[in-house]
Each structure stands twice: as C-alpha cells, then as structure tokens.
Request: fold
Amino acid sequence: MSAEATSPGAHSRRRGLPRIDLRRLGRAALLGPASRDRLPDAMGHVADAHRAHHPDADLSVLRKAYVLAESSHRGQFRKSGEPYITHPLAVTLILAELGAETTTLTASLLHDTVEDTEVTLDQVRAGFGDEVCYLVDGVTKLEKVDYGAAAEPETFRKMLVATGNDVRVMSIKLADRLHNMRTLGVMRPEKQARIAKVTRDVLIPLAERLGVQALKTELEDLVFAILHPEEYAHTRALIAENATTGDALAAISEDVRRVLREAGIAAEVLVRPRHFVSVHRSRLKRGELRGTDFGRLLVLVGEDADCYAVLGELHTCFTPVISEFKDFIAAPKFNLYQSLHTAVAGPDGAVAEVLIRTHQMHKVAEAGVVALGNPYASVDGPGPADGTGPGAGAETQDGERTDPTRPGWLSRLLEWQQAAPDPDTFWTTLRADLAQDREITVFRAEGGLLGLPAGATCVDAAYAQYGEAAHRCLGARVNGRLAPLSTVLSDGDTVQLLLAQDAASGPSPEWLDHARTAAARIAITGWLAAHPEAVRPPDAAPRASHAPTADRRSTANAVVDLPGATVRLAGCCTPVPPDAVTGFPVRGGVVRVHRQECRAVDRMRALDREPVAVSWGDASECTVTLYVESFGRPRLLADLTETIATAGAAIVSATVEPPSEQRVRHTYTLELPDAAGLSALMRAMRDVPGVYDVSRAQHPATA
Reply:
C-alpha cells in the first residue's frame, strides 16, 4: 500500500502472518523465481492473503477461476512484456490484502476474460453463478467500435449503475486501476497524463467515497508523480532528507505507550508515515515542515469506550491542540470512516497528530466497503445479472434497502444520471459532482434525513426530497425561519420546503445560480428548455405603479376635536377603524391622523407637537396600505389581484419591487367598503400560493 497504509492491520498481527507490501509487489513477487511461462507462486500469494482474513474460505473456486483466466489469457502479453495473467492476479492480490471475500476475488480473476478473450458471460454464469457473472459484466468495458468517443463515459455510467446494485463492482474497478497506474510507465506520456486525469477526477473521489483509503492514497501518489513531476520530486527529496525524523515520532509514541500502560489501557501504538500527497499538502499549508509532520501516531484499541479513555489520558498527560480535535466516532464520515483525531505537544514542544480507533474501525478505514464483505449474504439467492443486480430487490418492511453500502451520494448520482442521456453532459457532470468531497446531513421538518454535498442550498434540498415536483417550490423554512431558496445549508439544519399547489409552476432561471447538485441542475435545465416562455417570468420583472397614488380622502371617517380642520389619514400607516389613532396639526389647517404605534407619532412628540384627539365616525369605508411578501412565481400578481377583487376592495395603487433572492415585495393601497373586512382580506391574501406574509404599513399585521 502507500506510505500512509503500511502499518500492519490487527488481524495479520494477531495471526502472526507477514504482511505483503503491495507497493513493492511487482513482477518478481508475482512470478517468483520461476521462468516467465510458469506461475507457480502466484496463487499462493493470493491464497495466503485471503486466508489471513477468511481462514475458512474455500479456495477451490479461486483455483477454478485461475485456471479459466490463465488458459483464456494464454499468449496475451501486457505492454510491459509480462504475461497478461499477471494483471488479474495482481488485482486479485490487492483485493485479497484488503479482506475481500471469495466471490469478489473470483470475479477479479475473471474481470478481463469477457472483454479480452473468447469467454462469454454465459460461460462465466454457468461456471461461477449469477453474482460472479454480474460483477464481471459490471467492470467489462463497452466497445469503442459501438460507442466511439462515448465509450469511456458510457463505460463509467454502466459501472456506476452496476455499483448501485452491488458495490463490489467498483471495488474491482479501483483495484484494476491501481495496478494499471503502477505499470503506466510503459505508456506514452500523453496517454499517461490522460489516464491520470481520469483517475484524479473520477476514480480517486470514488475511492474516497467508498472509504477505501488504502487504494485512494496510493492512487493519489501515482497521479501526483505523473501530473506534477516537479512537485513530486521535491516532496520525495523532502521525505528522503527527513528519513531519520521518525525518531521524533518514535520518542512521542514511546511516551504515549508508557502513559497508556500506566493507565491500564491495552493499546497498540504505531507510527504511520504520511504518503507523498499528504506531505505535499502539509507543506503548502504550513510552509516549513517539522520532523513530526512526516507522520502520525495511530493508537489501536479493542472497544469504542477505550478510544475515549485513550483521548482522556492523552489530553491529561500531554498538552492538547484543541483546534485539531475531531470526533468521527460519534459522527462518522459519510464514507464509513470512524476515528478520533487529536494533536498533542510533547515536553520539547513538538506536536504530533494522533488517530485513535478500534481494530475494526482501522480495518474499515483502510478497506472501506471492501471490509463489509458480501452485502447480500442475507438475501435468499442472487438476483439476475441484467441490471437489477444480485439481491438488489432486498428491502425491509419500510421499503429501505438492506444493503448498507448504498450511501446517499451514490443514490443521488444514480438518479441524476438517468436524466443525462448525453454522454458529454454525463461525463462533465460526473466530474463536477465527484469534486464535492464533503457531505452534510439535514433534517426534514416532517421527519427523515437528506444527505447533501457541502455547499448545498435549499434548491438542492428541494430536488433531493421531491424530485421533479420541486419545480413547484416557492420557498423554505430553515430551522423554523423563512429563508430564500439560495440559503446555503449547514450540517444539522432542519429544512421545510414550501410547494405551490399550482402544478404548472416552474423554477426560475436564477435557481441555476443556487443549485450545487447535479440532480437539481439537470432538472432545472430540462424544465427551462421545455418551457422557453418561462425564461423570464412575468412577475419577476420590475413593475411600475399601476396607477398614480391617489390623494387620501380628506375627511374619511375620522373626526377631530379641532373646528374647521381638514382631516387626512396618514399614508405611512393608513389607519382604519377601529385602530387607536391620534392626530397632529400640520400646515394648511390639516390634521394628519396616524395610528398610535406609528413611528411618525414618536417623531412628532420628540418635536413637542401637541396631539389632537381623534375618533372614528359612522362611515365604514376606509383606505389602507398593505405590504405583501412573497416568493417569485408566474401569475402571482394576477392571483393577488383576483383575491382583492373578490373581497370587494378597490386598488388605488399597486407596486411590485424587483425580486431579491427569490423574494418579491408588493405594496397595495386599497379602498375597502367596510373596515371590518380587512382581517378577512389579509387572511385571503396570505392563502395565495407563494405569499408568506401580509402586513399593514409600518406595523406587522396580527390578523
């Protein structure tokens, strides 16, 4: 494995078996001392590695698969000159080292037979069963003769769909790419670069998401060496120069062993060198590297509780760097990873990063989904290899898959790829989707969870929850508060999506600016393409006033205790019966009437203006100004106008401000035949889809 993964695993240590270093494993290790036309030791390596993880495994099926693979590939050679059989053997050995079960190893031995030999899928199915046949079919490339330039993206689409039904397909593909990357030196430089870029953009993110760190770290180093040879050479020189700095970590590790021994905690403390890319990133982040920056301490214990006991002892006996603490046991990463991360300073001030985990956590951290074995072992019989996958139909009574290896990101990927029939769109979107390397979890207000990439917005949450029905989304409440659809969600937020009742509603082009997930972008783009008339929603454009603002009624139905005065209702708060009101004399013998809670009243009193008593007369007509807050959508203005007309009110003036973050503010000045109907009118306006608040001028309505 890579330098990051050279520490022995718990299982191989307990059984006293030597660990094979896959990084050093080349042609000599595979072929042994025998000549090129004999491979006597090859299956012995695979058998030993497999039995280290599965002592009771039946090796007869592996021998049978090897015989078929060796005979069908006989006479074929790799570009390096090795017999072709060395490739499936190396792939199988990589997976055996990670602890893959027998079915996966059988399929890995045969993974190129259908693609490169005369062996057919029917023969594989007849000899090894439906599961092995499905895995082999899943990793078999599509022919360029049939697909042309689309062969590579369509092959990856095929593999991803197969992975959605059985994650072991991608395990084999990752091991296959690792061995190909190890032997890429015989290719032309331009081809090396092309393969390395695809590995960087697609395979490495998939390895990270599936938790197979042992493969991911070595793939990163191999890509680093090809695409950034100068930085790689510099990093390699740094590691060589600091080869003796392991003593710095060794001294701290000895102190850690002593502390844990005195505390009575049984633990294994190992020094794990960082791999090349990790050292390179540390140098970019910190500048000059210290001796302890070239590795980390790994503490392995038996139980989860022991992890926290170790953490307590380390933070008690050493100086902890609190900013470096992360608890991935209580909150595991979305790729199954669990561990406690901390950093402590020794007596001399040297800071060492420490990883604390159980032996089982370590196995999963290295091998990811490979360590889970066969996810369909509990299913009665394998399913067909026709795209449904073995055991793909296995569900609980709640309709959830029993397969724990079908994570949320994979489900989302499988959903959006169906809406991307164009290979170029799929290929570009896949790379962009996989570039989002962190996931958050948000809670649905009505119950349940949504897994989203970091940086996702309410738009992404809507499409993740409702699919194409999210076209009708009007807005959202985040943690109980109204929020625009552009709101970026954080891990642990509670989100409630608000949908319009009108099925004809659709998304705004602005939504594309806020969509981070491929599913949301593809769905929005598809709807806009199918509805070109909606590219500029009618109600989204700025609107001028429909009519000049009329002068307020001079007498209205307010009576003031000032003979000869002309009464005018203030436009800032538009009082109506039975509001508590007060008046203030202004120039021209006019008394301006305000609601008592209007801000203008405070200003008048601050200027020592004397108020005038005001009472309401018998007339029931009134003029009022209402503010309407809504989410932008087509035909909203028409629906509000119809609601106002139905209530018998007349519109004196109406303005609609330009939309801001999907929100639109309307201002209506209305004449009502009876002030008693104001509360009912405001309730009716709030019931219009898309409207989330209606208030009186200067004072939020409570009706």
